[in-house]
Amino acid sequence: MTGETDTAPSRDHAGSAGTGVRAGAGADAAPDPAVSLSPGWTVQAPVTADLERVFAVIAASDLAEFGEPDYTLDDFKEEWETTDLASHAWMVLTPDGEVAGFAQAHHSEDRSRVDSEGYTHSAHYGRGVGTALLALIEARARADTAGVTGDERPVLKNYINANNPDAVSLLGRAGFEPARHFFRMRRTLDPAVPPEPATWPEGIHVVACRDRADQERLYVALDEAFQDHWGYYPESFEEWFAHHATSHGDPALWFMALDGEEIAGIAVLGHQLGGGWVKSLAVRRPWRNRGLGAALLAHAFETFWRRGTHVVGLGVDTESPTGATRLYERAGMEPVRLLATYHKTL
Question: What residue numbers bound the domain in which 143 lies?
Answer without folding.
Answer: 33-180
